[in-house]
Amino acid sequence: MTLQTLDIPLCDAAATDALGERLSAAAQIGDCILLKGQIGAGKSALARAFIRARLGPDTEVPSPTFTLVQTYETADGDIWHADLYRLGDTQEAVELGLTEAFDTAITLIEWPDILGEMTPTDALIVELSVREDDHLAHLVFSDRWAQRIQQIANDA
Q: E-strand spans in the chain?
């Protein structure tokens, strides 16, 4: 599988929200988006913008830090927002039902490294980093995402 990359500078919180909204418009059932980055890099903010783009700007989107998974019903199917930071091993991710959600929902996963070998091979990786004057979204994607990412880049 050939992987491609794209870097998108995020000059402020509005730019992070805009990226979340564009990803939301492009996402389909069966898509997995892995959100990586240090604490404070914008993972939860991006997920919140993604979910609100589908459900409306006033939708309450709490962090799943303590619940581990928050699910949202949409007309197109469910969105699962998971925070795996507190998990001890891959089996705990299986027990949450993530393997089934990979096929039946859109999954947004913060701190995805615990997934190990159960990580979907065609997942979109969005690695957020804090730079001196802004943030950066480094996207790593397969052919499944290539055309949609091109559209996202054109809309940026």
A: 4-10, 32-36, 69-74, 77-83, 105-110, 124-130, 135-141
Which of 37-41, 89-93, 126-130 has the least mean pLDDT?
89-93
Model confidence band, residue 70 (pLDDT cutoffs 50, 70, 90): very high
| Percent of the chain predicted with pLDDT > 70 | 99
Which residues 6+ apart lie within 8 Å of 36 measured at CB?
Answer: 43, 111, 112, 113, 125, 126, 127, 128
Whether the CB-CB separation of 139 and 124 falls below 8 Å is answered with: yes
Task: Decide if 72 contacts 44 (C-beta within 8 A).
Answer: no
- pLDDT at residue 132, as a whole number: 87
d(CA 109, CA 111): 6
Taking a C-beta distance cutoff of 8 angstroms, is the pair 32, 115 a contact? no
C-beta neighbour count of 49 within 10 angstroms: 23
Burial class (CB in 10 A: 0-12, 13-18, 19+), 74: middle
Let me know: does 34 contact 124? Beta carbons within 8 Å: yes
| Overall fold of domain 4-155 | Rossmann fold (3.40.50)
pLDDT digit string, tens, across residues 75-84: 889 999 999 9
